[in-house]
Amino acid sequence: FGGMSRFAIRHATPDDAAGVARAQLESWRSSYRGILPDAVLEKLDLRRWIESRRRIAAQSRRDRELLQLVAYDVSHGDIVGFCDAGPSRRNVAMAGEVYALYLVQHAKRHGLGSEMLDIVTSWLRTRGRPSMIIWVLEGNHHARRFYEARGGRLGPTFQSQVHGYPVLERAYLWDHL
């Protein structure tokens, strides 16, 4: 995918589990600083996330309705972000959902997020899913501005928890991909 010079995007493989987990950990610690308590961010366990990513990769191999992308640095191959998408988890008929889209700080503002969303929307359309939803933490203003700039409209809210800490999630909706 893509024609960027410093970074590129490809389909994830099971061997990417550790790199994706590291990118997620780094992204959470920079993006959610000030949104989640420092104690929550410091307790994040890389080993548990690697195991989680391995389970997701195994599920993705069995389930063709899951899309997993990774963004990587072309000079040394390090994974700098990822995107997971598939059917809506809240059983919204014919809707797709972006489950996760994370980039490490130095990979932001290079067009990777937009390119991954473009790939996801095309992939969803080919699977007969003409709409999309993304859930974002209420306080994640950078992500919210990004999704608004990409045409997402604000949808419902959902009270949940992140590692035991209560959070409010906001939906962004695309009615027509």
Tell me what the structure shows.
The protein is an alpha+beta fold and about 180 residues long. Helices cover about 35% and strands about 30% of the residues. The protein contains 5 helices and 7 strands. The chain has helices at about 15-30, 40, 45-60, 110-125, 140-150, and strands at about 5-10, 65-75, 80-85, 95-105, 130-135, 155-160, 165-175. The two termini are about 20 Å apart. The model has no long low-confidence stretch (mean pLDDT about 90).
List keywords for this structure.
7-stranded mixed sheet, alpha+beta, 5 helices, single chain, 177 residues
Helical element count? 5
Uncertain stretches: none
What string gives the helices and strands in order? EHHHEEEHEHEE
Share of residues in strands: 25-35%
* Helix percentage range: 25-40%
Note the overall shape.
globular
Distance between the termini: 19 Å
Rg, rounded, reads 16 Å
Characterize the main sheet: 7 strands, mixed
Average pLDDT figure: 91
Broad structural category: alpha+beta
Using DSSP, what is the number of strands? 7
Strand order within the widest sheet? 1-2-3-4-5-7-6
Secondary-structure map:
Layout (H helix, E strand, L loop, with lengths): L6 E5 L5 H15 L6 H5 L3 H17 L4 E7 L5 E9 L7 E9 L8 H15 L4 E7 L3 H9 L3 E10 L2 E10 L3
Helix pairs in contact: 1-3
Task: Summarize this entry quickly.
The protein is an alpha+beta fold.
